Amino acid sequence: MEKHYCNCYIVPPNILEKMKNDNIITNEVYQRSSEISLNVISARKKISEQLNGFLPTNPKGTAQRFIYDSKNTAKEHFELVRQEHDAAIADDTANQVFDNCGRVRDFFNQEYNFFSVDNNGKNMVMNIHYEDTFLNALWSTKIDQMIFGDGDGVTLGNFAAALDVIAHELTHGIVEYTSGLIYTGQSGALNEHLADVFGTVVKQHYKNQNAATADWLIGDTIVGANWPGKAVRSMSAPGTAFNGDPQPDHMSHYNNAPDDNFGVHTNSGILNKVFYLVANGIPPKNDGTSKKDAVAGLDTPLAGRLWFESLKNIKSPNCDFRGFYEVVMQTTQTLMHENVITRVDALDFIKLAFGEVGIS
Ligand SMILES: [Zn+2]
């Protein structure tokens, strides 16, 4: 299978462009971000031999963490500052990345029996203090590493401390090693959706929250005073995370514009809404002529389990929203046979939840 590379940013570049146009960030900061992909790709060639030289290549890895400090340069894999079994160091950012990466790794291993991004114990390489005033964090499939900027302290920052951001980015790694969903159009939006799902599932798990008590925000701790809203995305109410948030919550508002790889971070809102409804339930309806009772949700742990099994069951890298709906229905049936899902109305409920956003 041909490999399709992507740099999966937590803050979509077209949203940063909007911040530039609104004079929230400077053109220089925006431009710097837009050049990052070239630096990463050219750097890969230089470090490829080095990577093979000291990272274990045995088939069953041990998912060790390696934290590198870019020292505010555009070089990843620059200076190793902490690795597995090392004690905490003076740099809080390094320790936060180390701890959060471990939490995400342990969650997938303990809850879903899936070890590291490749389920083969691949080592986890994280680069911190990347560039100067770099307002983003990303997973690069070109180098299979995460990269964290420091932000500017007023618009965006604190990426290393954000568990949802790290879970989101590492899920891109899992998708890369399972279905390899192509990062454009509906398959790309499905890829983004799955990353947001496990961003919130992991965060809710460690915060001891459930579907009813969680805020369902992605990136609420990375936005600063100058960010025009409360988070980067809202899964319960897509399109409301910030002023100008372009996310739709229904197929009738699907965005076909070409920017952001045909809206991978935009149209993911439609599927995010489905997951929220499956976890939290469907509210009652009364439009004057007909009345429908509320339907209870599966809550986040079981909805997360269903979504993770579905993620593994996606067969095509071009899977679209409707294809994913079929995968979730089949996976629901499997989990019912295994008595993981015990409610008899589960298939009707899943069908109803997808129907709420116009997918049938
Ligand atoms: Zn992403």
Automatic annotation (TrEMBL):
Pfam families referenced in this protein's UniProt entry, alphabetically: Peptidase_M4, Peptidase_M4_C
Catalytic site positions: 169, 265
Top EC class for this record: hydrolase
UniProt cross-references to InterPro entries, sorted A to Z: Metalloprotease_M4 (IPR052759), Peptidase_M4 (IPR023612), Peptidase_M4/M1_CTD_sf (IPR027268), Peptidase_M4_C_domain (IPR001570), Peptidase_M4_domain (IPR013856)
GO biological process, one term: proteolysis
Localization in the cell: Secreted
Top-level division of the source organism's lineage: Bacteria
Domain Peptidase M4: 80-176
Residue ranges of every copy of the Peptidase M4 C-terminal domain listed in the record: 179-359
GO cellular component, one term: extracellular region
Record's keyword annotation contains Aminoacyl-tRNA synthetase: no
Needed co-factor(s): Zn(2+)
Primary localization class, coarse: secreted
EC number, UniProt record: 3.4.24.-
Keywords assigned by UniProt, alphabetized: Hydrolase, Metal-binding, Metalloprotease, Protease, Secreted, Zinc
Record's keyword annotation contains Hydrolase: yes
MF annotations from Gene Ontology: metal ion binding; metalloendopeptidase activity
PANTHER family: NEUTRAL METALLOPROTEINASE (PTHR43579:SF1), PTHR43579
Known role: Extracellular zinc metalloprotease.
Annotated family: Belongs to the peptidase M4 family.
Name of the protein this chain belongs to: Neutral metalloproteinase
Organism taxonomic ancestry: Bacteria, Pseudomonadati, Bacteroidota, Sphingobacteriia, Sphingobacteriales
